[in-house]
Input
Amino acid sequence: MAKDYYKVLGVTKKASAEEIKKSYRRLALKCHPDVNSADPLAEERFKEITEAYGVLIDPQKRKIYDLNPIRGFQQEQVFEDIFSHADYRDVFDELPIKREWLEKIFSIGRVFAYEALVYGGRPRDIVRRSLVRLAVSGANQFFHNVMDIHQNLAIPRQLAQKGGTITVEYKPGFNTKRIKVHIPQSITSGSVLKVPGMGRKNFMKKAGDFYLHIDIASS
Output
């Protein structure tokens, strides 16, 4: 069954970004761990409203969802995208929720670690924890978890059938980047295109990969 993200957040399909943030703050407070410590379902509700927020606050995800509400989004990836985007995660600044709890719920420690290593300005203990994770999980897996970029891409049906090129806009860092991507002939929804070396760069200038999750527009 398709998820109705608008209903989950209690907003209309015409809701602005600020209205979405306002509704999310209100609902997040109701699911606060200190308020609902005895409710075993509170954590799942918190994840559900956060997933809805992550999809609707992101213009590209929202456009894809509006075109095809049945299409699902990977919850973990939605959470990562929220916390790797300053404009999306600032909603948590006004909530009385500890970062440790957010890390536990969303497994977002690697996102904060990435920011600490690349941009600086983050607490030293986050860097230390990230290095522990690096040693435990393996350098290569950790690197791609934080440096790879996954993005949904809706393409016209004619382009999917005949193939061709399309210009894709994304943000591997602070600045927006545009690249041309080749679309193979007869590509189908759900296909994933890999663009090597076009992901985020770390402080050693080593880059991850860029993955495009294809969705074909219905019209």
